[in-house]
Amino acid sequence: MTINVGVLGARGRMGATVVNAVEGASDMKLVAALDAGDDFAPLADAQVVVDFTHPDAVMDNLKYLVEHDIHAVVGTTAFSEERLATLRSWLEPKPSLGVLIAPNFALGAVLAMRFAAQAAKFYASAEVIELHHNRKADAPSGTAAHTARMIAAARAEAGVTPGPDATTSELDGARGAAVEGVHVHSVRLPGLVAHEEILFGGEGETLTIRHDSLDRTSFMPGVLFGVRTVLTRPGLTVGLENVLDL
Ligand SMILES: NC(=O)C1=CN([C@@H]2O[C@H](COP(=O)(O)OP(=O)(O)OC[C@H]3O[C@@H](n4cnc5c(N)ncnc54)[C@H](OP(=O)(O)O)[C@@H]3O)[C@@H](O)[C@H]2O)C=CC1
Ligand SMILES: O=C(O)C1=N[C@H](C(=O)O)C[C@H](O)C1
């Protein structure tokens, strides 16, 4: 079976890479490659649309896709619990429609998050550092926020209370942003692509888990897997770890 795929954000850094990947996939056909300001009419031919646009645009795009019964694979970041709840309400009357949102489609990043969740119950102290290119629109990264939430959930399940921290900040932001009790630090530099370190500290030891995306092709196997998977996975799925056999 050939899957008809549309891409939103097609002229962007990720969208252009997705266009190439879809064109190179023998089981997919690219039917629309659209960007900001384009007419969405060509999406009528798409079974699945991949969205790598902008946090300010993605909810309107998803509303359009759900209204038109088109499955969606979403890499665009900055999904709050409120946004996810809105999306679930849109999907409720569409029981066969699937939306897959993944803050990171790179296999290594998904594994790093899983390892971090595993480690979280053994270490009361954890910090996340994400490092990205300086054209990135949002901070913290979607991956860092998701990682922090996974650590928080693993701690809650294991009954681990976040470790002591005696520091008083002299300057706002010196300790980063707290996402569900986990400090997250964002670095922006030209030359970087997408990188994350998760640091754990315990009695006389530290554990560092690090992932580096050195090229945007690192995200493509996950995106193509998402396109193939979303057709048979109705409802909202958040995180590639929930569809991969890890
Ligand atoms: N989940 C993952 O694995 C990954 C996620 N990302 C995320 O993907 C998103 C895009 O990143 P990146 O490609 O670097 O960003 P870019 O800015 O390079 O690309 C975004 C593109 O989307 C276009 N766009 C904006 N609004 C719309 C709209 N309403 N409809 C269609 N196209 C639109 C932009 O056009 P214009 O410039 O004219 O506004 C631009 O061409 C970010 O949220 C980023 O964090 C990135 C890498 C991996
Ligand atoms: O903007 C990017 O580049 C990336 N965005 C995603 C995020 O915010 O986590 C995924 C990856 O880190 C690259």
TrEMBL record:
The active site is at 132 (proton donor/acceptor), 136 (proton donor). Residues 3-105 form the Dihydrodipicolinate reductase N-terminal domain. Its EC number is 1.17.1.8. Residues 108-244 form the Dihydrodipicolinate reductase C-terminal domain. NAD(+) binds at residues 9-14, 35, 75-77, 102-105. Gene3D superfamilies: Dihydrodipicolinate Reductase, domain 2, NAD(P)-binding Rossmann-like Domain. One of its GO terms (molecular function) is NADP binding. Belongs to the DapB family. Catalyzes the conversion of 4-hydroxy-tetrahydrodipicolinate (HTPA) to tetrahydrodipicolinate. Homotetramer. This is 4-hydroxy-tetrahydrodipicolinate reductase.
